[in-house]
Amino acid sequence: MIYADHNATSPLRPEAREAMLAVYDMGPVNPSSVHTAGRAARGVIERTRTTLGGAIGSRAEDIVFTSGGTESDSLAVHGAVAGLESKCTLIVSALEHEAIGKAAAHSGAVVETAYLTSAGTVDLEDLASRLKSWDHAAKGTPVLCLMLANNETGILQPVAEAAALVRDAGGLTICDAVQGLGKVPVNVGLLGVDYLALSAHKIGGPQGAGALWHRAGAPLKAVQYGGGQERGLRSGTENVAAIAGFGAAIEAAMRDMPNYQTLGSLRDAMEARLEAEGGVIVTGKGSPRLAGVSNFAKPGFAAETQVMAMDLAGVCVSAGSACSSGKVKRSLVLMAMGADDTLAESAIRTSFGWSTLPSDFDGVADAWLKAAERIIAKEASV
Ligand code: PLP
Q: Is 14-255 a CATH 3.30.300.20 domain?
């Protein structure tokens, strides 16, 4: 099998597995317990907090562990809106993951859309002009939601520039860095954001662990109540093993980041072959992108059909726009970039990562070209 779906979830790294097994072998671990076993569990969590802080250039104490990216996004959006007593307007970029988009829609705050350029990056001119004439009395604090790297296309966003515009207008920025962590340098100070959402399983950590970093002093209220864990910001017994796995995964991902970058030239060669031999259209070629992501389309060749044909050939990829039920929809991200329906319905995403072998790129291209030849020829003959 060739696994080219790292943006959906990355295989568990051996380092993460080992760290988790070590926790399971510790016996009962409740970090809130004051006895020896509890204190040992607390040690695991605090060491991981320090590791993660080191990876994103933050103080450990500004990190809240959660169950994953969705919860981190939700805590950022709902927690910021509550912290601002709803006196805010959310400016949500047109390419946000549903974990941000739906949290914003359910937050009770007014939501505006930040539009994209055809290059797939947020339109900074439009954002700047909007913020220049911002009516604070009527709209409250502007809160921008802008992801670091898009899950469908891998396109990197000008987060630091956008956050600076928002800061100058007295606003706040929530950055979903779930797909960027461990693949491009992430430094909260350089990004200038106020909240940063992270997830373990996109970098070879386990599912069930994530984190929200927030700038000290940034408005943030808890959205769930209970035992007051994580400084009262996320009640609930911590998933100690998953957090340990997250820590081991981030260490490995930081170590391997130069290797990840080498995927870019292999990806480019794969795209060049698919363009030349299969007539595909690649999205985001001219924009800064994650090295391991390629989103391409063959208009008229349904994304769902491509994904199934690739699966039969032993290659795991996904339609850029697959939702949690596995149903394929038209890609809203591509539509927001100005793509037409035909392109948006025929785009698939391949995403590579730490376990990828150089030969996987040819394997993906071979499988796609064979499937396209067979299916398109068959469709043409009926
Ligand atoms: N944000 C982005 C950009 C994502 O790609 C994902 C997952 O696909 C999430 C958030 C949700 O993360 P999790 O699966 O950890 O809840």
A: no
| β-strands 293-297, 281-283 pairing | antiparallel
Burial group, residue 216, by CB count within 10 angstroms (0-12, 13-18, 19+): exposed
Is the minimum distance from the CB of 69 to ligand 1 under 6 angstroms?
yes
Digit-coded pLDDT (tens) for 51-109: 999 999 999 999 999 999 999 999 999 999 999 999 999 999 999 999 999 999 999 99
Helix (H/G/I), strand (E/B), else coil: 133: coil
Which is the CATH superfamily of the domain at 2-9+260-381? Aspartate Aminotransferase, domain 1 (3.90.1150.10)
Report phi then psi at 265, rounded to 5. Answer: -75, -30
Task: Say what the pTM is.
Answer: 0.97
Pocket probe mutation, ligand 1, options 66, 174, 179, max atoms within 8 Å of Cβ: 179
- Tell me, using a 6 A CB cutoff, whether residue 206 lines ligand 1: no
Burial level of 117, CB count in 10 A (0-12/13-18/19+)? middle
Structural domain boundaries in the chain: 2-9+260-381, 14-255
Phi, psi of 119 (to 5 degrees): -80, -5
Radius of gyration of the chain measured on its C-alpha atoms: 21
**H/E element holding 332?**
helix 332-336
* Coil, helix or strand at residue 308: helix
Mutate to test the pocket of ligand 1, among 5, 6, 10, 97 (most ligand atoms within 8 A of CB): 97
Which protein residue's CA is at the shortest distance from atom 14 of ligand 1? 69
Nearest protein Cα to ligand 1, atom 9: 69
